[in-house]
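lol forgot to send this yesterday, sorry. struct tokens for the thing we talked abt
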């Protein structure tokens, strides 16, 4: 039986172990490869300050790289009597290398180890989310351009309001993703600072070279103050969750629109048949379950910042085991959002739109403001024109003129989709993912 890293003369009660480990063995599987990368940087630094010999560094590096390979192949396991990924990796090293394996934990604690694992994990997962998001962004702009001339009613209070278009509708969600990307960039900047070396939260009397591990792990900078580095646990997750929630809110709103516009009572869009589901009793049904589940999944992601806030609220400074619980909902959220984005991209690309919505007379009043504006341009004061058109409508004398002339930026006739794409590309280009890819390749000897 593998004892705990911290076990001395007393063996811990089995029920207490079950209670405290909880889902950690499962959750730490998300972190495994990053735990190894963090250790690769840590041991290179330990050698540079004389705490490992060059030979010890070589064997430890080889062994950690081979553990990384096991993780990549899917064969890595956290054994039943091992507490967490940090203990498992150290156990594998000591089984193989004996005393040399026992040296790697000098100058660190599992507290800064899990902090650095989380930051490395989040950085990579933000890249995956952004890849998926960029796919959706392109699909939305493509559809906006394709259907830029197809009109639809715009609503306020769910009452027919003014003319809108599919160009505007699709493009609106693309531009929403621009702002979400800005929020993700802010979160990424918070993540991209190195907490390693803060140890249990108060540093170490070893002369750790934190600038070296910062460089080796491809971080932009470090969390300098060791107490603050530890205070980042929970805070970083909350900030990142807020950014994920921002993307999820955009997608949830799109999903609701899509369900509504696909309903027979609107009939504005049609989802591809193969993406709808049937009913066990009503033979005619083609339900938009994909968008309904998208909405619910997105709402779960939007609950995440609140859940993290409640778990971590009112904790004083310093490490607490409470923080472990954040992993359970936070770590799986990235793959969930990436899946959602991929599915919604397919739906958006393949849905078709009704190009003849306005032939239905129930929408004719949406041209009322066009008529008011026409009279105003002819010289009638706006308020008088408004009143005249209102009275005409009441008397049943209103004749809509469906010719539109919306020319200002962001309107039906001037979508500015190239500007929206420009904004997105500019923010996207400010993420330097290559920097950490190169750092990881170097640590793994794959350059
Ligand atoms: N599983 C722990 C967590 O996620 C790892 C750190 C353990 N540290 C401690 N002092 N018990 O927080």
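and heres what i got for the seq, position by position
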């Amino acid at each position: 039986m593998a004892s705990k890293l911290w076990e001395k003369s007393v063996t811990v009660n089995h029920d207490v172990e079950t209670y405290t480990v909880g889902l950690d063995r499962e959750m730490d599987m998300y972190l495994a490869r990053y735990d190894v990368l963090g250790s690769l940087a840590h041991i290179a630094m330990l050698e540079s300050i004389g705490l490992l010999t060059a030979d010890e560094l070589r064997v430890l590096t080889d062994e950690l790289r081979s553990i990384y390979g096991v993780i990549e192949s899917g064969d890595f396991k956290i054994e039943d009597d091992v507490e967490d990924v940090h203990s498992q990796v150290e156990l594998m090293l000591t089984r193989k290398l004996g005393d040399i394996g026992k040296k790697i934990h000098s100058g660190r604690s599992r507290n800064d180890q899990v902090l650095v694992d989380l930051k490395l994990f989040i950085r990579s997962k933000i890249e995956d989310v952004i890849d998926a998001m960029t796919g959706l962004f392109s699909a939305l702009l493509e559809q906006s351009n394709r259907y830029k001339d197809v009109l639809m009613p715009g609503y306020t209070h769910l009452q027919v309001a003014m003319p809108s278009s599919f160009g505007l509708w699709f493009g609106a969600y693309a531009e929403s993703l621009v702002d979400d990307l800005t929020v993700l960039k802010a979160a990424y900047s918070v993540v991209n600072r190195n907490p390693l070396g803060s140890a249990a939260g108060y540093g170490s009397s070893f002369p750790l070279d934190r600038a070296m591990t910062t460089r080796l792990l491809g971080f932009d900078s470090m969390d300098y103050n060791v107490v603050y580095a530890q205070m980042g646990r929970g805070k970083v997750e909350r900030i990142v969750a807020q950014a994920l929630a921002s993307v999820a809110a955009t997608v949830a709103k799109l999903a609701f629109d899509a369900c509504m516009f696909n309903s027979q009572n609107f009939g504005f869009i049609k989802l591809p048949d193969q993406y709808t589901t049937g009913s066990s009793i009503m033979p005619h049904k083609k339900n938009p379950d994909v968008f309904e589940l998208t909405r619910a999944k997105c709402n779960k992601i939007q609950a995440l910042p609140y859940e993290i806030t409640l778990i971590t609220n009112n904790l004083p400074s310093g490490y607490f085991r409470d923080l472990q619980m954040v992993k359970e909902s936070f770590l799986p959220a990235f793959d969930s959002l990436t899946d959602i984005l991929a599915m919604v991209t397919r739906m958006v690309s393949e849905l078709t739109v009704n190009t003849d919505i306005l032939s239905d007379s129930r929408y004719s009043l949406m041209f009322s403001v066009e008529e008011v504006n026409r009279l105003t341009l002819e010289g009638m004061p706006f308020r008088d024109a408004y009143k005249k058109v209102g009275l005409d409508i009441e008397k049943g004398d209103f004749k809509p003129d469906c010719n539109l002339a919306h020319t200002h930026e962001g309107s039906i006739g001037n979508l500015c989709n190239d500007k929206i794409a420009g904004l997105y590309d500019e923010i996207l280009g400010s993420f330097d993912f290559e920097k950490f890819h190169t750092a990881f390749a170097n640590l793994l000897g794959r350059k």
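Residues 110-146 form the longest helix (37 residues). anyway ping me if u want another try
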